[in-house]
Batch of 4 targets.
Target 1
Amino acid sequence: MKKALVFGGAGFIGSHLSAELLKDDYHVIVVDNLYTGTKANIPEGVEFLERDVTALCVADFPKVDEIYNLACPASPVHYQARPIETALTSIKGVLLSLEIARRDKAKMLHASTSEIYGDPIKHPQEEYDWGNVNTIGWRSCYDEGKRVAETLVSDYVRLYDVDARTIRIFNTYGPNMLRDDGRVISNFIVQALKGEDITIYGEGTQTRSFQYVTDLVNAVFKYMAIEKSELRRFFASVRLPIPVLNIGNPEEYTIKRLAKDVLRLIPESSSRLVFKALPSDDPKKRRPDITLAKKLLDWEPVVSLESGLKETISYFKR
Amino acid sequence: MKKALVFGGAGFIGSHLSAELLKDDYHVIVVDNLYTGTKANIPEGVEFLERDVTALCVADFPKVDEIYNLACPASPVHYQARPIETALTSIKGVLLSLEIARRDKAKMLHASTSEIYGDPIKHPQEEYDWGNVNTIGWRSCYDEGKRVAETLVSDYVRLYDVDARTIRIFNTYGPNMLRDDGRVISNFIVQALKGEDITIYGEGTQTRSFQYVTDLVNAVFKYMAIEKSELRRFFASVRLPIPVLNIGNPEEYTIKRLAKDVLRLIPESSSRLVFKALPSDDPKKRRPDITLAKKLLDWEPVVSLESGLKETISYFKR
C-alpha cells in the first residue's frame, strides 16, 4: 500500500486531495495544526497528526511515496492575523517536505499560488512571468513566503534532484471552504444565505477566475502520475528550469456578476448589493494561462461556475 | 559602554561598520562563519564568534544595544555555490536579529539589497517600487531570501514594534572586498593587476551605479542615530509602512567606461578588453533614487569613482 503525506490535509484543498488518495487505496497521513483546517474536513480513514509543520522534523515521519505540501493559511483574514507564522509555515513546511522527499526519493507536490504574481502587469499570467509583489505590505507574509518556497523547491530540484512538482493554484472554491475565510465566493454565499448585505469592494468591475475544486484535484492527480524523466523533458522543452504549472480556470467573471449569480441561485435570499472601498494591496485582476497544463496533462477545467456554485451553496446550506 | 552585534562582521561591509563602531567606543561582537568573510577583515578589538547565524539562538547572546544584520553571501559566485544555505542565512539571520532586537529593545539595522528590485522596469528605483524578480532562477536564492527577510522585518515592526531599520544597499565597493567575489569592480581591478584580459559581459553598454563603502557607512550611522519616534513620523509622512531606505550612489557609469577607468588608473597593466555573452538573469540596469535618504539623513555620496577606485586599487595591490 502506497503511503502519502498531506500537509494541511484538514484544509479546504488538502481534504479533497486526501479523500481522492484514499479512494486510490493510499495510506494517507494528514498533518494539520487546525488553524484554518477543521476536523470535520478530514475524511474517515486517514491517519491524523494534529501538529504544526514548523515543529516537526524528517525523523518524525515514516518512509512515504508521495508528499503533498499544502500547509499554509491562504485567506488574507487568516494570514494577516498571524503574518510571521504564515511566512514561517510556508518556509519550514516546504523545507520539511523537500527533506522528506529527498530522503525517501518520493514524489512531491508543492502548492504554490497565483499570489506569487501579485498585481500582475500583463494578462493572462504565464509560468514565465515574474510577478509584481510588494515586500513590505500586509499581504507580503503570504506572497513572499510562497515566493521563497518556490525558490527553495527549485534549488532542491537542481542540487539534489528531488522529484518536486510545483503548481500555482489560482482562485479555487467548493465544499469544505471555511465560512469565514473572507474570500469572495464564500463571503457572497454566506451573506446571501443569511440575508445580509453582499459587500462588493470597489465597483465590482474587477474580474476574477474561479476554479472548482474537483478540476484542481484532477489536475494534481494527472501531474503526479507523470514520471520524473518525462516531466524533466517536457519542462526543458518549454524552457522552464523546473516543473511549475498554473492550475486554474481562465474564464473571467466580474465580481458584480458573481454576486448576481449567487443571488439568482439562492432565490429565497433577501440580500442586497452594497459597495465599499478597495483595501490596499488588493490584487486587481488575475487570470491563468493554462497552455502548459493543457499540453502536459491533457486537462482543462470542466465544471461550470453555475454547477460549481450550486454544489458550494448546498454545502454551505448543510 | 554600548554593545553592538554585527552579523557578517568579517565580511566586506560588516568589517567597515565594525571598525567605525569600535572608533565610537562600542563593545563590538562579530558573528561570522567565514564563508565569505575573512579573519584579516576583522578589526582588532572586537569580540569574534566564528559561528553560523543559522545555528544560533537568542539565548546565545548577551543584552545588546544595537544589531547589524549583514550575514549573507552577496556575490553570485558565492551564493550560487550554496543556494539553499544562502536563502536560509537570509531568513534565519533576520529572524535571530529581530528576536534579539525584540528582547533587548535594541535598534536594529537590516541590510537588504537593490537585488530585491531584480531587473527593474522603471529607473531609477524608488523605495515604493515592488521589483521584478524571478522566483525559480539561479539568482533567486539571494533575491527571494532577501525579499522575504524584508517581509519578516516589516511584520516584526508592525506586530512587536521592533525598532528595525531596513536599507537597500546598491552596488558598493572598496577595501576588504574579496578578490574572487566575481563582482565587476574587483574583477576588473584584479584582472588589470594580473595583466589578464578584462572580461566584459554583453557589450558593456549596461550601466551600473557604484557606491564607495565609506559613503554607505556614513549613511548607516546617520540612520541609526535617529530616534524611533522621529523615524516613524518621517516614514508615515512619506507613506511607507516601515523604515526602508535606498542607500547607493545614483551616478551611472557604463561597464565599458569602468573598465577603461581601471586601466587608466593602473597604467602599468598589460590587460586588454574582451567581450563575453551575458549570463541569464543578469540584471540589466539599476540606479537608486536617494531622495528619501537625502531628506531624512541630510546625506549624499561624496566619494568620486576616481578616488574610490584609487583606494580600492591600492588595497588590492597590498
Note: Chain B touches chain A at residues 83-84, 87, 91, 116, 118, 121, 130-137, 140-141, 144-145, 147-148, 150-156, 158-159, 166, 240-242, 244 (CB under 8 Å).
Target 2
Amino acid sequence: MATIQDIADKLGVSKSTVSKAINNAPDISETLRKNILNTAVEMGYTKLRRSKGTAPKLCVIIKNMEYEEPHQFGYDFIIGFRQMAEPAGFKVDVIPVTDTLQKKTPYDVFMLQNNYIGALVLGFSLTDPWMKDFEKSHTPAVLFDNYIPANPFISSIGIDNDEGMGLAVSLLKKLGHKKIGYLSSDLGSHVMQVRYKAFFHAMVQNGLSPEKDWAGSSYYITQCVENHLMRLLNMGMTAIICSHDLIANAAMIQCQQLGYHVPKNLSIIGFDDLPMCSYTSPPLTTIRQNRTELGKCGYYAISSLLNHVPIGTILLHAQLIERGSTGSFITNTK
Amino acid sequence: MATIQDIADKLGVSKSTVSKAINNAPDISETLRKNILNTAVEMGYTKLRRSKGTAPKLCVIIKNMEYEEPHQFGYDFIIGFRQMAEPAGFKVDVIPVTDTLQKKTPYDVFMLQNNYIGALVLGFSLTDPWMKDFEKSHTPAVLFDNYIPANPFISSIGIDNDEGMGLAVSLLKKLGHKKIGYLSSDLGSHVMQVRYKAFFHAMVQNGLSPEKDWAGSSYYITQCVENHLMRLLNMGMTAIICSHDLIANAAMIQCQQLGYHVPKNLSIIGFDDLPMCSYTSPPLTTIRQNRTELGKCGYYAISSLLNHVPIGTILLHAQLIERGSTGSFITNTK
C-alpha cells in the first residue's frame, strides 16, 4: 500500500502538504488538495492504518431507501449494522448520497477525504455512478443487493433469493398449484434480475414447466398490474408470486375488484415481509428479508474485508412467512 | 429452546438424571443415557447456553481430506479457523469421522454428548449419512462446499465458483481461444455440480456457445483423461479447464506425451491452486481457493450462527493465478 511519502515523492511536494490535503487542513488550495487526493487514490492509499486515538469511522451510504422511521426498510437495517459495529469500536455515520455527489467525487476520494475506512451501501441501482467506481476501488464496501465480481475490496450481501423463491414455489406446489405466474418490477436492478431467474429455476426444480410468458415485468406497479396481471389470469394461473410486497398487495386488491377471492380462487405471495404484510386483507404470505439480520451481515462482511479476508458474498437464509393469501387450489373459476 | 426440566418432565425422570446423561457421568446406564440424549435432541436442546467457566468448544469434523501436513488441503483451512476461533475464546478439536460413526450416532447427539456448540464440516460428499441429519439439525454447522437449504442452523462456505470460472473463461477468451473444453471429476459432489454449471454459464456470459459434449466427467482421473481428453482434442479444443488441479496436471502430461506443446498448442487451467501448481511443467494457471481465508470464513459463519444471525452462504472471492500453462492461441496443430 502506498504511504504518504510515496505520494509526496510522486507529486514533488512535502509530506506535510500531503498530510494536510488528506486531513482536510484549511491552509492548502482546493486544486492542490484535489490533485493530492486523486493521486493518493490512484496509488491505492487508504486510511486503514491511520486511526490512532479516535474511533475508526464507517459509513452507511444510502440512496432510494427510507430509513428515518421504524417502519421504513432502511431503519432496522442500519440498527442491525450499528448493533455490531458500535460495540466493536466503530463510529457509524449515515450518508444519503445523490447522483450529483457521485459524479463530482469518486468513491475512493469521498471515503479518503471524510476519513471513512469502509462503507455499507444501500439502495443503489445498476446506473448509480459509483457502481462503476466499485469495480476498481480500494476502500472496502459492502453492497446490499448488488454484486461486483473480482474486486477483493467489495462484498455483496442479501437474502438467498434462490432459497426464498424455492420456498414460495414449494409451498404453492404443496397446495396443489401448477400454473404459477410471476409479476416483477423493472429488471434494471441486480436483485430483480436475480429473483426473475430464481423464479424459473425454482419452477423447474419443482418439476413444473413454466413458459417465458408466465412472468411479466414493468417499472411502475400500476403498469405491472395493467400490463401483466389480466394476461396471467386469462392464461389460467391459480397462483402469482410477486417480486416484492407492494406489487403483491396491488395485485391482490385488483383481483378482488375483479371478483376473485384470495386465496380461494387465487393465491398470492410477496417478497420482503414489509411491516404492512400483517395488515393487508387477507394478510400476505411472503418471503422475509430480516432487515436487522441483514444489517448484521453487513457488519460481518465489512469486518472480514478490513481483516483482509476477501468475502465476496454473504447470503442470509430466506424465511417463508405463511399468512392468509395462500391456500389450497380448489378452482380458478370465480 | 427446551430446558433440562422439560426433558426430565417428558421422560418422567429427575433433572439430575438428565444432567448426568448430558454430561457423560458414569453412574447411569447406557440405555438410559441414549434415551435421554435422543429425547433432548428431538426437543431441540443444545448446549449453547451452558458453558460456564470452561471455554466453549467447537469442532472441525473432517472426512476425505488430509490435514496433518502443511502441503495438505485441510492444514491451512484448520489454521485459518483456529486463528479466528481461539483468540475469540473457543477451544477447537479436530475430529475425523467415518460412515460408521455417522450411522451409529446422529449429528445432534454426537455434538451434545461431546459438548460441542458448533462444527466446521470439511470433505463431506452428498452421500455422507450426516448430510441428511443437517436438514433438520439444531446444532450450528458450517459446511465447506456443501449446501443445505432452509435450515437456519446450517451455513455453507466456499469460494465463488461462478466468479472463478468467469475469470478462467475470460482469460482464455482474451488470449484468443473460442473452443474451450471442460474436464471434471464425478458429479456426485455438490461442488463439482456447481463448477460444471458454472463452466457453461461463464462460456455463455463470454459470448461463446458451448455444446453439451464440450464437457466430460469421470470418477477417476485416469478415466477422465482416457474417456474425454482425446475426444475434446479431436473436437478441436484449443484450451481445457479442469475441475481441479490434479486432473489439470494429468491432462497436461498426457497432452505432452501426445506431442502437444502447452501452452503453444493448448492452454490448460486448473482449480484450487494446490501447492504443486508452482512446480508442474509448465507451472499451472489455476483458480485459487485460499484455504486459510476459507478457514476464517468458516469462523465468520459459525460466529454468526451462534449469534442467531442465520447466514446461509459465505462465498470467498476467487482469484486467478496466471502461470505458464496458458498462452495466446496460435495454432492447435501439433
Note: DSSP finds twelve helices and twelve strands in chain A.
Target 3
Amino acid sequence: MTRFGARPEPLRELVHEAASEALRDAEVESREIDAVYFASALAGITDEQAGVLPAVLLRTVGIAGRPMLRIENACASGSTALAEAFWAVRNGRYRTVLVVGAEKMTQAGSAQAAKAMAGSTDAEFEGRVGLLAPAFFAMVARRHMQEHGTTREQMAKVAVKNHANGAKNPKAHIQREVTLEQVLGSAPVSDPLQLLDCCPVSDGAAAVVVTAGPGGRRPPLVVAGSGVSTAAFSSNPSMTSFSATRLAANLAYSMAELTARDVRWAEVHDCFTIAELLHYEDLQFCDPGAAGRLIEEGATSLGGRLPVNPSGGLKSRGHPLGATGVAQVVEALGQLRGEAFGRQVADPSVALVHTIGGIVRGEGAVAAVHILTEAA
Amino acid sequence: MTRFGARPEPLRELVHEAASEALRDAEVESREIDAVYFASALAGITDEQAGVLPAVLLRTVGIAGRPMLRIENACASGSTALAEAFWAVRNGRYRTVLVVGAEKMTQAGSAQAAKAMAGSTDAEFEGRVGLLAPAFFAMVARRHMQEHGTTREQMAKVAVKNHANGAKNPKAHIQREVTLEQVLGSAPVSDPLQLLDCCPVSDGAAAVVVTAGPGGRRPPLVVAGSGVSTAAFSSNPSMTSFSATRLAANLAYSMAELTARDVRWAEVHDCFTIAELLHYEDLQFCDPGAAGRLIEEGATSLGGRLPVNPSGGLKSRGHPLGATGVAQVVEALGQLRGEAFGRQVADPSVALVHTIGGIVRGEGAVAAVHILTEAA
C-alpha cells in the first residue's frame, strides 16, 4: 500500500505503486494475473473517470488482455472487491486475481466532496436534508449514550487508542498521538462528535494478490470467512446496531467455523469514534451496550485481549474509501508476518476485518466482514 | 426492461419497473434473490449517487439483507454484471441472482455529460485532447474505408437496418425508420460520421434473473458462453480491430464449444454505424475487411442469414450505458420465446450478445461477449 494522506500524485501513480508492491511481495508476474477487481467509490466524481479505470491504471504494471472491472459499494468498495475476487478464486473461475483499491479525495473541491459524500446516503432523501455521515453518527452516539450510559470520554478513548497505534504506522495519514483532552477540546462537528472523533479525508491505494496456489516465499494469509450484506432495513432492531454488519459477520463466522471468541484482533470501520463502539457490539466482541466498558478497560488497546485497529484505523491511518478495505488486509499480512513493528499484536493468528458503506434509512447500508488466518 | 428514451422518472423508478418485471417473469419472489449485481456507468456523476445505489434502489421491490454491489465497466457495465452474476451462480456461490442495469443520461447538463463521457476514455490523455467516442470512431471509419474500401453508404446502411428493426420494438427509444438519404443528409458530427450514424443518449433500465435452478413456467435461456476482457493494447493488430472483442469472443465461443458459424443472430455494440461493421469482423461473422459487403448483401438484416441487432441496437433501441448489456439479454429472451413480433428472427436458438466499453490507446478498452441458447 502507499502511504495514506494528502498525495499530489494522480490516481494512476498511486495504483501503480500499490499494485507493483503487491505483485513483488507475492512473487507473481503481471502475466500470471487472470483478472483485476478494482475498487473505488468516488473515482467517477473526483477523477472525472467513470469507466475503464482499471484498464487505464494498470497498463503501467503490464496487465492487459484480462477481465478487469470496477466494484463500487461506497466505503465498503475495497472489501467488496476482495470478496468478489476471493469467491472467483475459491470457486475455480480464476487462479490468481489482483485486487486494487484506490481513492483520491483531498484535492476535490469542498462542493464536489460534499456531493460525493452525499452520494453515500440515499441522495434523494437523507442526502438532500443534510443527514450526512457526521450528523447521522452524532444521532447514533446520542442514542448510545442514552440507552447504554456510554460516555463522551469512552468515545474519545477510541481516538486516543487509534492515534497511539497510527503513530507507529509509517503508512498512516496522521502519525501523531492525541490526548483525551485534545479530543474533548477539538472543534465541534456535530454534537456530541468533535473534530478528533472523525476520520480524516485521505488519498491512497492498496493492493493484494488473491491466489488459490501456494504463495511466494513470504507467508500468505488465508481467507477463512467472507461475508457481505446490505441492511435488512425494516428489521433493524435498534438505532445503535447495524443489521448489515450482523448479517455479514454471521456469514463470515459461519464459513470460518469460528465465533467472535476466536478472533485475536481486528480492523474495524472507525469512521467516527462512536462507530467503533457500535461495531464491537455488532461483531459480538461484547454484549449490546457494553462497548463503552470494553474500550474503558483497555481490552481493545494494543496490549489488551482483543486489539482493535492496530494500524490506526480509519481514524489515524486514514480513509481513502476504495482503498480502506484492502489496506486492512495489508495490515493483517504485516501483523501475521510479525512485521508490524511498534504496533505488533501479541497473537496475530486470527484477524477480523470489517468495513461498512453508506447510510440508508437510519443504518449502515452495506457491510463486509472477512476472517483472515495464518496458513495451516 | 423499461421503454428506453427520455424518461423523466428518477433512476429508482426505472429500476423498480425493470426489476419487478424480471421477478414476475421469472416467477421468483424477492426473498429468493441471493444477491444483486447492479450495473451503472455514470450514476456517480449524473445522479450524484456513488455508493449504496442497489440498496437504495431495490428496497422498493423488497430486496434487503443480501449482498448487493455496483459493477462499473463503462459501456460494458451491464454485460460485465451479467458475467459476474453468471459465474457466481454457475460456481454455486449463489442460486439466484438479480442483475439490473440502469442509467439516466438525458437530463444531465451538457458539460456534465461531456465530462461523464470523457471518463470513458483515458481522461488524462485521450479525454483531455478531445478524443472522445465520435472523433475516435470517425478515425476508425476513415481507416476502414482506406484499408478495405468500405463505403460511406455501407456504414449508413447499418443505421437504415437498425432503425427498421427498432421501429418494430415498442421498448425502443427511436421507433422510426430512416432512409439512406436521411442518414447521408443528416448533420455532420465528426467526418465521415453524421448524426444518424450515432446512437442516441437515452435513459432506461433492464433486469434479468440468473438462476441455477429450473425457471418458472416461461422458457428461460441458457448462458452457454461468457467472456469478458480488456484490450491487449500493445498487441492490437490494427486500428480497425479491437483485441478486447476478439479475446472476449474467443473465451465465449470456446466455453460454449461453438464457433461464429453456429451463431444464428446477434446483438452487437453499434454505438456508431462503423462500430457494427468492425464487430462483424472481430466476432468472426466475416473475414477482416469484408463487413461492408456483409451489410450490403443484407446478410445481417432481419431476413438475412445472420440478423444483427433485431432490437434496433444501440442506434435505435437506445443506449443507457449500464442498461444496454442487460437489455440485449431481454431481447434474446423475447426472440427465443417467439415474442419479438414484427422483428422476430427466423431461428433464435443461438444468440451472441456483445458490448464494448471505453477507449484507451486507440482501441476499445473492454469487451464482453455472451452466447445465449435455448434450454436443451
Note: The mean pLDDT of chain B is 92.
Target 4
Amino acid sequence: MQGKRTPGLRALAFDVFGTVVDWRSTVIREGRALGQAKGLDVDWPAFADAWRDGYGPSMGRVRRGELPWKTIDELHRMILDELLARFGIGGLSEAEKEDFNRVWHRLDPWPDSVDGLARLRREFIVASLSNGNVALLVNMAKHAGLPWDAVLSAELAGRYKPDLEVYRKAADLLGLAPGEVMMVAAHKGDLRAAGAAGLRTAFVPRPRERPNRDIDLSYDAAFDVNARDFLDLADQLGT
Amino acid sequence: MQGKRTPGLRALAFDVFGTVVDWRSTVIREGRALGQAKGLDVDWPAFADAWRDGYGPSMGRVRRGELPWKTIDELHRMILDELLARFGIGGLSEAEKEDFNRVWHRLDPWPDSVDGLARLRREFIVASLSNGNVALLVNMAKHAGLPWDAVLSAELAGRYKPDLEVYRKAADLLGLAPGEVMMVAAHKGDLRAAGAAGLRTAFVPRPRERPNRDIDLSYDAAFDVNARDFLDLADQLGT
C-alpha cells in the first residue's frame, strides 16, 4: 500500500482545527444559538476569534513548562472562563459552560474533508495529528464522519505541536520512518516543524478559516505538495 | 449517545487477539503457504500454538521489569527466532522473517466481528484495547475492515494488560469514567482485571480460538454481559 506517484509514502497525518474542520463557523453558530436561548447580546464572531486566539498562548505556557500538562479541553475551558467575564456573559450553569466548551468536539468538516479522506484512505493510512486531545478527536470524528484509521494526538507524546517530538511520536506509533509519513496542514508553521522532524509535507490552504485575518495562503515550493483541497491532494497523490 | 438498556455506558473496549480476530487459523494458513514456497515440513498448528504460548511469558518479563519496554512486534519476533531454531526452519531471509512476523498485522476477523462492531458503533464508541502495538492494530484494522472509532493499545500506557493502568488509561484517553466503558473479551482474566479497574465487562467466549485446549468458556454472572458473539452483544445492549 503506497502511492503510485509517491514511492515510500505510507501514511498521511492531518492537522485538524482549520485544516479538516471549520472551527470558526461552528463556534459562531453554537454561540448564537446559546445567546438566543439565554437572551445574550454578544458579538459571536469576535468571541470565536478570541477563543481561538487564546489557544496558542495557553499551549505556549504548557510548552515552556509554566503550566503542567493540560489537555486542550482544559485549556479551552480556562480561556472560556476568561472570555465569559470579558464579554460580560453571566447566568450560565456549570453544565451549560461545560457543554459549550465541548463545541470543539462538534466542529463541522470542510465540504471536501470527508470525501477526500475516504479517497486518500484507499491507498494510505490516514490519521489525525492534532493538538486536540484523543477524546475530543474521537467525538469529533463520530460527529463529522471523519474516517480515520488512527486518532493520533499530541496528547500521546505529552507535548504540543510544533515540538518535534509530536511528529516523531506519530511516525513511531504507526511503525513508520518519519519520511514514510506526510503531514497535511493549512498552517505553514506546522508543516515547517513536521519537515524538520523528517516528515513530508502537504500544504492545503483554507482561506475560509479566518476570513477576517491576513493569513499567508500562498503555495510554497518548500512543501512536497501544495493542494487546493483534499480532493486535489488525492488527485496529486494518485489515489 | 448511550445504550437504551445500559444507562451511562458510552464506550466499548475490545480485546483483539482471539476476541475479534482468529489468530490461529491465519498463522497456520500463512505458515503453510510459506512452507510450500520454501519446501519446509513443519507442523504449522503446533507452530502457531507455540508462537502464541510464548506471548504471555514474554510480556510477563516486560511486566516484571526483566526486559525494558518492547512492543508486541518485537516480542513476536523474539519468539519467532526461537521457534525457527526449535522447529528446524532454516533458509529464511531477514525480509522473509520480518514479513512472517507481520502475519499478526494480517489476522482475519471472526465471521461476526465486522458486522457486530458496525452495529455497536452506531450507539457507542468502539475502541480496540489490545496488548498489540498501535501499528499492528492499525494495519490489522485496514486488512480486516474493523471500523474502530479509536485504536487504543497497552502501548499508550507503556504497560501490558492485565496491569490495571492499561484499562484506566483507555478510559482517561476517551475522556470517560471507567464505569462508562465496557471491556469486551473472550478471556476471563482480562475481564477480571478490567472489572478491578472499574470498567464494566462483557464475556464473549470464542470456542474456535484454541479448539485443542481446554479453555473455560462458561458464562459467568460476575460479568455484566455474557454473549454468544458480537451480534448477540449488540442485541443485548439494545443497538
Note: Chain B touches chain A at residues 1, 73, 125, 127, 133-136, 138-139, 141-142, 149-151, 155-156, 173-176 (CB under 8 Å).
